Amino acid sequence: MLPAMSLPIGLLTSGGDAPGMNAVLRVMTKLAVSRGVPVVGVENGYSGLLEGRMRALTEASDGGGLGVDSDVDLLGAVGGTILGSAREPRFLTAQGRAPAVEALKALRGLVVVGGNGSLRGAHALATESGTPVVGVPASIDHDVGCTGLSIGVDTALNTIVSSCDRICDTARAHHRAFVVEVMGRDCGYLAMAAAVAMGAEAVLFREQGRDEESLVVAVESAIRQAFSERGKRRVLILKAEGVKTPCTRLVRLVADRLSDLRDVDVRATVLGHLVRGGAPSFRDRMVAGRLGMVAVESVLRGHTDTMVAWQPLVAGGEKTSDPSVFRFPLEQVLAESDALVDGTSPITQRRVSMMDAIEGVLGV
Ligand code: F6P
User: Fold this and answer.
1) Tell me: the pLDDT tens digits for 148-182?
2) 141 in active site
3) Pocket of ligand 1 (CB under 6 A)
4) What is the mean pLDDT of the chain?
5) Is 352 within a domain?
6) Which of 245, 277, 309 is the last residue of a domain?
7) Whose CA is nearest to atom 3 of ligand 1?
């Protein structure tokens, strides 16, 4: 076996892809090349690690040194992930992970780019192996603890806003109400943030804890107020994926109650995976660049079981070479992620109370 210093660093993208994953792969490969360290990409997330599917992301350059694979360089600005991604059920048990722990012996360290499920896998690998494992938060859902931003959130919000602008064009032309569902799994942040950015009439998200009847009442009253009292030409309601009543059912239930209003048409649009694709925004590329640099530096210095986090406002954690990037233990990240979803996090409580406070304003 090669001495640890000459082993390559492994990069892996896992879980739902997020715009900016390629940008972070590019910067990490560049930084490693600048330090003379070869890089391999693990294909298809943890499935590839279990099955030993890896490809070189660095190549010998004409001058005899190391260069960056042309795909990595060229596709840094493209959405998705050139390495492929997967959700790997075998990774849920120590027995299932065993071949991956073995595969890590051929690496100097591993950087895992992904959301909470992927970071949980990274934490397990760090605990079970002697190889440094570092996480980089990347998920459109905005549900990863300890970081002010995950790669992909900004692009997803830009896509939601531009899609809603288009929906509003046609809604105004036909005097229609639209309930637009956006992804986010159990986290309502994308719906909340987009509702504020769009000046939507209402927003529905799981953390509000509304039953189906209250959802219907909220949508019905937003539509009545907008069309009957305020004479608006369109109504836009953002619904988070975490609200379990399907969009089409909600719209049908609401339409039944609005039969007394003339010329009111209520429609449902689910943006779905549209929001996960596309070229990363400036902000996602910039954050990807800065997180990626510190992630590789961290591996080279032997840090493990840790995640690099975007924290422009200092909030604890261990300082790194970038004043806005901090390292947090993965265990703390995962505990904070759980709290974001179960509602015990002060961040979730603040979001819910802020949205409560502006509910009346949204309807105006
Ligand atoms: O975690 C990202 C995400 O897009 C969630 O918003 C969504 O619930 C989920 O992934 C969808 O996953 P899949 O593409 O595997 O159906």
Assistant:
1) 999 999 999 999 999 999 999 999 999 999 999 99
2) yes
3) 16, 87, 115, 139-141, 183-185, 241, 276
4) 94
5) no
6) 277
7) 16
CA atoms 27, 337, 13, 84: torsion sign = negative
Query: Does the global pTM surpass 0.85?
Result: yes
Does 363 fall in a domain?
A: no
Q: Which atom of ligand 1 is nearest to the CA of 185?
A: 8
Atom of ligand 1 at shortest distance to CA of 87? 15
Q: How far is the CA of 230 from the centre of ligand 1 (A)?
A: 37
For residue 199, the enclosing domain spans: 154-277
- The helix/strand/coil state of 114 is strand
CA of 203 to the centre of ligand 1 (A): 20
Q: How confident is the model at residue 111 (pLDDT cuts 50, 70, 90)?
A: very high
Alpha helices in the chain (DSSP H): 21-34, 45-51, 70-74, 94-103, 116-128, 153-174, 189-198, 212-224, 247-257, 282-300, 330-342, 346-363
pLDDT digits (tens, 9 = 90+) for 11-65: 999 999 999 999 999 999 999 999 999 999 999 999 999 999 999 999 887 777 8
